[in-house]
Specification:
alpha/beta, Rossmann fold, Dihydrodipicolinate Reductase, domain 2, 2 domains, three-stranded parallel sheet, globular
Amino acid sequence: MGRMGAEPSERLEGKAPHGWLPISHVESILAIPSLELVGLCDNDTTRLTKLSKLYNVSNTYTDYTKLIDELKPQFLSIATRTKGRTDIIKYACENGVKILYFEKPICNSIAEGRQALAVASERNVVVGYGVNRRYHTAYRKAREILRSGELGKIEHICVEHNSTNLLWAHPHSVDIILFFIESCELEYVQGNCTYIDDYKPSNYMLIDNDPIVNHAFFKFKNGITASISPTRGLNTRITCEKGILTVYSDGTWLEINDINKTGYINNGRIINIDISLSATVNAFSELIEISSGNSIIEKPITNEEIIAGLIMLNGLAFSALNGGVMIKAEDVPEDMVVTGKMGSWYA
């Protein structure tokens, strides 16, 4: 029931670009007529009491198993800290939940993610993941342009997401790359990180913090490369054979610059986007449609993409631990754990 789970969007009005509000799970549920908010759960009883009154919800729990057992929800949203999230996912899948939407990252190791998603697959649970740029209208418009072939084949993607922490922020960065490349076949990863309080783990299988990403480079087996830059602005630049498509300021507008025969770019063409629903509302609405059997709706994310994102994140950390060398995708340790700890907080 925290920031992404339930806090009102008033705190972001005038700050977040168009298309992001409402952003919390609870507000998005309330915005969709086909969803009914039947229960809330948090181990912080003060927060739970306050928000249950705000949203007029009488069924409150401090134990997620009791919520699932007693209310038997069809749709469960999970906005907990990362540690323990897969326990909730597995319990929900094994006890009748049909649709799951959970925040990023799904977990702290690749192996743990595979185990949780295997349970979801076995029970035919429809899965949504909180990397919500892939549900945002502007990013989807950008992918529509790329798919049209207007700019030719993608050559490189650069995500400019500031100097930020691996698990706190960069699940979004790696997923943007996967979203546009539309391939999970990573060849190798190479990266450099700064560790909080200069902490260097002696055991490379446990990183008990949330390293700051200075730079990351990825190469996919289809030849496309991608990078994460500490450049400010929350922009994504996609270089193609015939031009560069940029998603500016987290989806505020798009710009296309054609590349002329000399290799320079021409003046940009601005594309403004008409956005009617927020990314989170889009995500929830589409999960309902898919669960009802609507085959027209494109599945917003696959289990393979979720795992590929984990491999990119943990591979980046593993490369940094080894002096920034190239790490093949198959050599990223499946059991390596990144806790995402920042002081007394966890991602």
